[in-house]
């Protein structure tokens, strides 16, 4: 069973790699940050799956930190790049 | 292979399918809103199903609770960020429309 979980982790990394193509091509900053967010979710999935595969709860701590940082990254992007005088 | 193992494998497969759909949608969909729609599938369902499989496989209540917490935070983060991103995308569109009619060509 642990092998299946490792296999799933590899597949998840492949989907993250596919999402990074969108990060590369854009066209807008919103698309790029969306791809970065999908990469973040993918890595959280990898951490959960690897934690199950190896029976190591420390991976879950990493996943928890990942979820918190993903939200902060996108919030910082949206708040930090709005031009002054923009309608909100 | 027990019934529980089969259930875990089925959940893993379903979760992977949603992750793949999210990536594919992000790559293939034509505009920002529909790409955002694809992204939330991976965030909510993909991670949810994979996490459920890991929680069942983990076998202890403490591990399952922690995985549930990971998923809960991820769902809250996904809901918040998709609202923020959609608003930002709308602002960008409005600014582009203004730029078309602005006398200076609209510095973006």
UniProtKB/TrEMBL annotation, chain A:
It is found in: Cell membrane. It is a multi-pass membrane protein. The chain crosses the membrane at residues 33-52, 59-78. Keywords: Cell membrane, Membrane, Plasmid, Transmembrane, Transmembrane helix, Transport. Belongs to the CPA3 antiporters (TC 2.A.63) subunit F family. PANTHER family: NA(+)/H(+) ANTIPORTER SUBUNIT F1, NA(+)_H(+) ANTIPORTER SUBUNIT F. This is Multiple resistance and pH regulation protein F. It comes from Rhizobium rosettiformans.
Automatic annotation (TrEMBL), chain B:
Pfam families: PhaG_MnhG_YufB (PF03334). The keyword Transmembrane helix applies. Keywords: Membrane, Plasmid, Transmembrane, Transmembrane helix. PANTHER family: ANTIPORTER SUBUNIT MNHG2-RELATED. This is Monovalent cation/H(+) antiporter subunit G. The chain crosses the membrane at residues 49-78.
